[in-house]
Amino acid sequence: MPATPPGAHGHRRPDARELDALKRVLVTGASGFVGRHTLEPLLRRGFEVHAISARAVRRETSLGVIWHRADLLDCRAVRALIGDVSPEYLLHLAWYMQPGRAWTAAVNFDWVHASMNLLHEFGENGGQRAVLAGSCAEYTWQARTHCVEATTPTAPATFYGMAKHRLHAMASACAKQAGVSLAWARIFFLYGPHEHPERLAAAVARALLRREEVACSDGRQVRDYLYVPELGSALAALLSSDVAGPVNMASGMPVRVADVIAALARASGSPELVRLGARASRPGEPDVLTADIGRLRDEVGWRSSVTLEEGAARTVAWWRSATLDA
Known about the structure:
Blueprint: H1 16-21, E1 23-28, H2 39-44, E2 47-53, E3 65-69, H3 75-85, E4 89-92, H4 107-124, E5 129-135, E6 144-147, H5 159-178, E7 181-187, E8 189-191, H6 200-209, E9 214-215, E10 222-223, E11 225-227, H7 228-240, E12 245-249, E13 255-256, H8 257-268, E14 274-275, E15 288-291, H9 294-300, H10 308-325
Parallel strand pairs: 1-2, 1-4, 2-3, 4-5, 5-7, 6-15, 7-12, 8-11, 9-14, 10-15
Antiparallel strand pairs: 10-13
Helix pairs in contact: 3-4, 4-5, 6-8, 6-10, 8-10
């Protein structure tokens, strides 16, 4: 069984009368890096949360989250699930996200088909409001790119970005036809608990906790990093709003990649083990890739409150605990 979603402890299962007043939401990818961090914020906002995992889970009704096991690539399984749950809201986060492979994997296009099937079934069964996960990889990446939803061109260079961009166009048309309110969450760079061990922040934190040297690029690239539990809160706020169309999901506080690595190194107590410039930067990466967060801040009413230092300290503490528990 996957780890219990953070913060789910202490939530009791509502009784039948309370259920009538709750908004029923179906969360896909709920045991993943992002999805697990949406569950507590959704519960706090008064949702009856139904969570999907592709792995075996128990129906943890006592925690306030109702778990389902389903393969979203199986059309018949999706139809049965939607018919059983009858959600009014949908938060679709599930996707193929294997580091080093996701950018180029052909399975991205299988997920376009699966996501369209999911949205179609949702609309056919009375669904009202959906938020689907997009990506900053949909934007055209130039040497210096500040991404604004309404004006920055979208011409992705990877299979992953192309698949997300295609899904956005198709899902928008499908939702309009079905009368479903649709928001498209363009997610930028993340770090924090439960990150895949091969991704940047996790790999750095784990190596430093093992007292190993960390060979990095010069880290001059500027990015918009967001502590992943904050993204969970932001997605819950977006779902609860009536904001439609693409919304950049980011902190709005650009930093150098070197600053992220340095914050993790300070939190681990091993800054001397970092070797900036020991590896070459990946070719084709933009020097600057940042997000305009005007829609998220002004229309959704959400903004980041966790500093890089705080997020790095919490991330290192989580990995230290996870290592001790292993």
